[in-house]
Amino acid sequence: MSLEPQEFEELQSKIGRKPTSTELQIVAAEWSEHCSYKSSKRHLKMLPMKGPLVITEKGYDSGVLDVGDGYVVTAHIESHNHPSAVEPYGGAATGVGGVIRDILSAGTRPIAIFDGLRFGNIEKDQQARWLFKNAVTGIADYGNCLGIPTIGGEVEFDDCYENYALVDVAAVGFGKKENLIKNHAKKGDLVVLLGGSTGRDGIGGSQFASDSLESEDRSAVQIPDPFIEKLIIEAILEARNQKLIHAMKDLGGGGLSCAISETADALEVGIEMDVEKVHTRESNMHPDEIMVSESQERMLIVTSKTKLKKLQDICKKFRIGCSVIGTVKSDNQMHVRKGKKTFANLPTDVVANATLLDLPSKKPAYLNDIEKEKKLKPISNYSKILLKLLGSPNIASKIWVYGQYDHEVGIRTVVKPGRDASVLRLDNGKFLSAKIDGNPKQCYINPREGAIGCFEEACRNVVCTGAKPIGMLDHLQFGNPKDPEIFWTFLESLKGLTDFAKDFKIPCIGGKVSLYNETPAGPIKPTPLIGVLGLIDKTPLIPQRITNGDCLILVGDTKDEMGGSEYFEYIHKFIGGKCPAVDFAKSKKNMKSVLDLIKKQLLKSAHDCSKGGLAVAISELCMTNQVGCKVSLEKVPGQKLDVDRLLFSESHSRYLLTVDKKNLKKLEEILKNNKVSYKQIGVFGGSEIKFNKNSKPIIDLRVDKAQKTWVNSLRDLVLYG
Amino acid sequence: MKVGVIVFPGSNCDRDMYHVLTDVFNLDAQYYWHEKSLSKNIDAVILPGGFSYGDRLRAGVIAAHSPIIKDVQKMAKKGIPILGVCNGFQILVESGLLPGVLLKNESLNFMCEWTNLIVENNKTPFTNQFKLHQKIPIPIANGEGRYFVDDDTLKQLKKKNQIVFRYDEIVNGSSNRIAGVCNEDGNVVGMMPHPERAVESEINPIDNKPSSLIFESLLTKIGVSN
Lengths: 721, 226
Description:
- The complex is a heterodimer of chains A (721) and B (226).
- Chain A is an alpha+beta fold.
- Chain A has 24 helices and 28 strands.
- A 7-stranded mixed β-sheet of chain A has the order 8-10-7-11-9-12-13. A 7-stranded mixed β-sheet of chain A has the order 23-25-22-26-24-27-28, with helices on both faces. In chain A, strands 1-2-3-6-4-5 form a 6-stranded mixed β-sheet.
- In chain A, β27 and β28 form a beta hairpin.
- In chain A, α2 packs across α10, α9 packs antiparallel against α12 and α21 crosses α24.
- The two termini of chain A are 38 Å apart.
- With 226 residues, chain B is an alpha/beta fold.
- Chain B is built from 5 helices and 11 strands; from the N terminus they run βαββαβαββββαβββα.
- Chain B has a 9-stranded mixed β-sheet, sandwiched between helices. Chain B has a two-stranded antiparallel sheet with strand order 5-8.
- The radius of gyration of chain B is 16 Å and the shape is globular.
- The model of chain B has no long low-confidence stretch (mean pLDDT 96).
- The interface between A and B is medium-sized, with 30 and 31 residues.
């Protein structure tokens, strides 16, 4: 966990002398993959980052979108994978804490949390169950205490995460445009460390996260304290209102080393600091430890001498630490002292800008024939198969998870978790819709199409609430980038996302790259996670209760694309087959048409069709509304397909619309005009989920029986194994 | 007509409550930091939900020792309407203003869900507009929300009409399905569910009218016509 030999030489030649031990620690933290993005940075530039609503400021850790009337929305995504795999409670909790402080850094109040959780096979693996249970509790205890609602996310289990965990947290903030912190600093300004004390926890955390997970280094995991974080949020927003903050940065990976060097580099100044002034949790901490400790709940603030007193008064009110640790200089140096003795004195641009790598890539051999399908065992009873899928960990209701998260606090949550995307009301009368989606099963089979699929799925989800996608967050999680085959999958995913973002004019407003997600058993499947934010100008589509006689419309073609489907992987234990691909032109047309129908208030609800295919998506509608449905499979738009394809294909760009009979004509007119592929495939009523094909019964399942399985199976699995 | 909203370190429903009092019910509300004194001319006091002191030791127990609680106790004696919601209820219990104790939910988990309350006492300043046994759809969000009293105290509570709200179904294992209680005089009320999350139709998926009656009851009590 230190510099590579060539990096050491590079540092030595750049500064023209031998680095001190403190300097080595600082540079090793900042040049780690986690902080420097050295493997990915030159490629990330391909993503479109600009758009009419995007506001860019220097030194921001979160993306900012103008939502009109003088208001902005901020958003960011982070992961805490290595720590959560070792200590799931603390790892997941501090993951929430870190991303919240990124939102706060821009001067906005955090208003929502989303989490994407991935673990090994919890049906077989006790360790995975333990990781899952404790990560959920960690997120709940932290987010609930802060009073920030956790309003969405996803949970997935796959053998590739055995003995590992992916814990991704996204957060959204809201505030007035005029209150955004415009980071600036001038000579003589003071550098203040605010919040929790600096301790020996999380030492070397960023380097720990920049290597394969082989040791359970628990001391590299930080300790969460949501109460202090809550006090910091309120103190900082009070300081913001009084205009006391010139510049601000969260202390995350790399601790003070990164915060100081990156702040100085972004603002083109120097910072001189004294480690003796840092309020520490224990005495006798070495300067090296103070500089790289990743103790949580700390913020770095630049303020002026005249404003210091007011800032201190606010900290006193909230009883949080507030130490003046340094001053702003004009020399572009990062100068670390202990009393009078210098421990490090480095040019900030050297520290903050690691040399970027240009890693080789090569198409993995396994991809050559993975999209070929094998012969599957014939299915005799599709009702049984559907019930089995509804109770499977990836498809079962996640109410056991989101029921532990306060998703109402803040009184903004208009569409609650458990639906397609959650919707928040904003102070200007508009609504924000947001969703995160990943699909490692498809990304493994086809990294490009899989990544595009995640992006489109997140878009579909916000579209189902009536929102137009306005921004995207990407979180790219892969194995060791020095393996050319893994790096190839990274590049393919990134290129796919870039193409989709450009074509759909959805700017990437923030993101994160997490590499080295491996254990001695091997790398994870490529796991890009995509968050999409959507804006609703007037009325969101809040799903209305579906009743007898309502019509079920399917928009979009169902194709023979079974690769990575839950049906192949969970039922047939087969990894392979053709990965679903998004047709950009059709996708756009379907999206636009659904938004059109919602705007004209013709729909009772709109539901995305994804994991588990049509059979699962229709069952979800039946179970949430406690109503049966009769579906005629021969009417499903697209080519003629076998029954299992029709039921379980996970083709993209499909929407299930429910409409009152009286609005059917108007709806069909619009869909026809837009030349969208659609059909009425069923009618709601009765108390069974029924699928027929040319009048031949295929599935007949009682709604209450299906619901019991769907609602309880995940909880039962966690509690009783 | 002034309503004081007390803010403890870690309160997190204070802003929601303030919004409902001012923007929905046009009341004059004012925040009070826990170290300040309550103004003499105050007409009602609300202790909002949240995690005062991060729920350390036990939910509400540290906040119950805040300087402002002395003022709250004085006001309680004077008969001024006082409402504690969620963590506010826990603080009122810990400060001795209300009987009983709040334990961890039977599931041992934090629970956030919509439930139904039944009004059992419609004589308090926060329930005088309800019909007896009226139902209120309302969300709960707590980890330590299981109200517990011993059998003798329960008998006393029933006798003195101190049970204000009960859950329609078993939610968390509370004694007698109790969701809210009042003091003997009826002016101090504590409840675990969150009325401030239920009074606006935009965020209430069921019916926002019943929970609004909690605030309309207060308006009637302190003599403001809405």
